[in-house]
Amino acid sequence: MTTAKLFSPGSLGTLSLPNRIVMAPMTRARSGQPGDIPTALMASYYAQRASAGLIISEATQISPQGKGYSFTPGIHSQAQVDGWRQVTEAVHAAGGRIFLQLWHVGRMSHASFHPDGLPVAPSALAPDAQVWVVGDDGVGRMVDCPTPRALSQSDIKNIIEDFRQAARRADLAGFDGVEIHGANGYLIDQFLRTTSNQRSDEYGGDRHGRLRFLREVVAAVANELGAHRVGIRLAPFITARNMDCPDIIPTILEAAAYLQQQKIAYLHLSEADWDDAPQIPDSFRQALRAAYTGTIMVAGRYTAERGNALLEQGLVDLIAFGRPFIANPDLPRRLANNLPLADFESSTLFGGDAHGYTDYPALADTAAPHTLS
Ligand SMILES: Cc1cc2nc3c(=O)[nH]c(=O)nc-3n(C[C@H](O)[C@H](O)[C@H](O)COP(=O)(O)O)c2cc1C
């Protein structure tokens, strides 16, 4: 089976991409402390992966309130902007392109990250989920998320302003664009679903109301950067984290129609993540294509062959790979030449140093499959 389409040039807004392979956003929890500041090590990690058509950074909190896990980087201080600048410069010097993923976790957080001990959410409903928190003893553990406090309307306006300012800072840090994290049960997703949004004001209720926060965030970020530099990630089929909403598919299709009007750079579907979320049915892909004629990116257990088949059918435009990029910094070359893929070590996914992060080698130029041990 050919994979030629995957290796054909793509485009995104005004950017030309050398191939249709995207590095999916992946939290690796290695920011510098204190201050959640991107480091030179992170710059090396991303630069090693610059042969991707596009890199999407790990999720990055837009404000201290938007944080839910230890050691994740932010984009709300000048030191963070300076830290990210070394990342974007290293990626660009290596010939790559990089977007920053903008993140507010909402209720997926822990008391220790909030001065009043309470994460925020559309409604005061707990997610029945856990986040990774490093305690005073220096040991990271999964801990339960508490019941959040419901946001007031002025809090909501402040968060939209935080998104806008984060987009401005991403631009100052040299990113080619931003991806708004609207997937995986975080704040924007919490507004979309009846299971997590039981508000009676204009940010809740019917689809139009539940989509208002998404619309206002997209508009604020697009005003700041230009819509052609803004993508969004959505996860229609997740059910974990108390997100199993019976109205989510029509809600996402209505979002797609809005995103189409706004002419944003792309819509990114987060599909199978770990073991949650079923395969996306073709009927949904067709309905999405009808509602949204812009660039569609997909992620979730793709192989080169499966991604190429969807590209050939015209249902998607770009394929994002997550886990395969962890231990294969030269993933596009390996996929193009059918070279073996290395496995990653799961104990070094979150937190730590260069081990299990920047020490996975690219294959030597002369390496042929039979010479590998
Ligand atoms: C270690 C790790 C960290 C992740 N962090 C993020 C993240 O920060 N933001 C996000 O939207 N998705 C995140 N994801 C989900 C991935 O972007 C991707 O959707 C998922 O891994 C499925 O793709 P894959 O099967 O190619 O790995 C993460 C996944 C992994 C494995």
Describe this protein's structure.
Residues 368-373 have low confidence and may be disordered. By secondary structure, the protein is an alpha/beta fold. It is 31% helix and 17% strand. The protein contains eleven helices and 14 strands. The protein has an eight-stranded parallel beta barrel, surrounded by five helices. The two termini are 27 Å apart. Helix 1 (40-48) runs parallel beside helix 2. The protein has a single domain, classed as Aldolase class I (TIM Barrel), CATH 3.20.20.
Fold topology:
Elements: E1 10-12, E2 15-17, E3 21-23, H1 40-48, E4 54-61, H2 78-93, E5 98-103, E6 120-121, E7 130-134, E8 140-144, E9 149-150, H3 153-172, E10 177-182, H4 187-192, H5 207-210, H6 212-225, E11 230-234, H7 248-262, E12 266-270, H8 282-291, E13 295-299, H9 304-312, E14 318-321, H10 323-327, H11 331-336
Parallel strand pairs: 3-4, 3-14, 4-5, 5-10, 6-9, 10-11, 11-12, 12-13, 13-14
Antiparallel strand pairs: 1-2, 7-8
Helix pairs in contact: 1-2, 3-6, 6-7, 7-8
The protein binds flavin mononucleotide.
The site of flavin mononucleotide has 22 residues, from β4 and α10.
